[in-house]
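Hi Y.,

Following your request, here is the sequence exactly as I used it, all 521 residues.
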Amino acid sequence: MKKLALYSKIIDLKNQGFSRRSIATKLSISRNTVKAYLDRDENEMSEWLASTRSRKKALDDYQETILDWLRKNPDMSAAQIGDWLEERHYGSFAESTVRRYVSDLRKKYKLDKHSKRRQYEAVPELPMGLQGQVDFGQTWQTTTSGSRIKLYFYAFVLAHSRYKYVEWQQTPFTTADLIRCLQHTFKFLGGKPKQIVYDQDRIIVVSENNGEIIFTRAFQAFHQAEKFEVIECRGFDPESKGKIENVVKFVKNSFARGRIFRDLSTWNLESMAWLKRRGNGKQHNGTKQIPAVVFQKEQSYLQPIAQYQPVTKQVIKRTIRKDNTIMYQSNRYSVPFGSYDVHGRKVILQIQKQQLRIIDQETGEILATHQVSHAKGRLIQRSNDRRNRQIGIPELKAQVVQMFSQVKAAKQFVQQIHEKYPRYIRDQMQVILRLQSLYSKKELDKSLQFCLDNQLVSASEFKTTLATLPGYEAHLERLQAEAIELPVSQATKEKLKSIQPEVRPLATYTQILKGAHYGTN
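Below is the corresponding structure, written out as tokens. Let me know if you'd prefer a different format.
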């Protein structure tokens, strides 16, 4: 009821001789409210109403930020906005507060939310430890350079507690990927459910022979070792795995939508932090319980994990050579110019259907894809991997300067590099230009200033500085603190124990302090 209309009704009833108690009963309001209204005359009431209309709301300080999110992502939910506010340390707000505020903004600025509606049928709740559901999803994300990248994710949910696990990669899932993700899931849960529901997917099923499911050889071996029941969900019966469909939608809408992609390792860290904070840490709309709390009870109902060791193909690893190529079967395959790193950049080779994919071992970035050559001693090179000689050096230098906000400082840095490496200035500029797609202008500016302040004059030193920005390290440290560590096999742990860092004599560091340089161009 509007305040002014309520005030009129209270005054009218008072004039009719009703007591405060009777007025409160008739209007279904408290006696304190009746007293507060009757204690004001008409002028005081008008002033008070005007003050309530102009009262500042808790989220007003972030209104422009929220409006920017809604304009860029019209179908963004209030729950995701609340999560983004919390993730960016703006504060933790009640979901109802965020929901009302977002609803008011949509009405005021006519920001319609376009969403598709689908009808569902309620299904009974399943007992603890009985069932887990698996599905896959895809999203398109904007990178820090403004380009678009397609990501693939695996999602798992325990049907009773709604406890979730999510893992991302940059390539379509294979049977080996699924087995790895299931193993990570079981480690994450500390056990496994009796049943797993999945779609009839080619990475799991070879064919269906008169109702009998024939699994792929790799999945069959894993299935027999772990001894869980596999339940197939058919296309016309989506309700049998409705919970995981909701999780896939939840991951897309609450985590991925509008989020900027930097690299795969950071993305997975952010995903695990989101799971802990939101996916498993907030009350579920259906059960009205927090999945992480319910899971503490359900965990004791899970089955023990078998020590399954999959028979995997040997991983092919290479180090990028100085000429920005890798060797495979006596041929050289190119990677983008500037990929070489003086410290030895490691890559993994993946061969599928006569295609060679070169993947950065640390970030998971696909550097290049080539057709496998059956000849020997050849250079297989893509045209866009070659050094660009069509653009003149002055134009290259101008393009580098345009990467930065501080034009004067950028010109100084470029000139210093030109004076130090006159024969290699084209290569130096092209290495820096390639970094533009990987970092924001703010990060590029920070690295530029650091290099100028510390007399670091080369493209490789500029690149190294970018990779060790304090802000980026702090960001990763915070995500690692929030995230739950992915499981590591015992074999890997044993291998890590044997690694010993290189120990230099103390005299080396004494020389550095005196001005000597090590490992620079």
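The chain is about 45% helix and 15% strand.

Thanks again,
Q.
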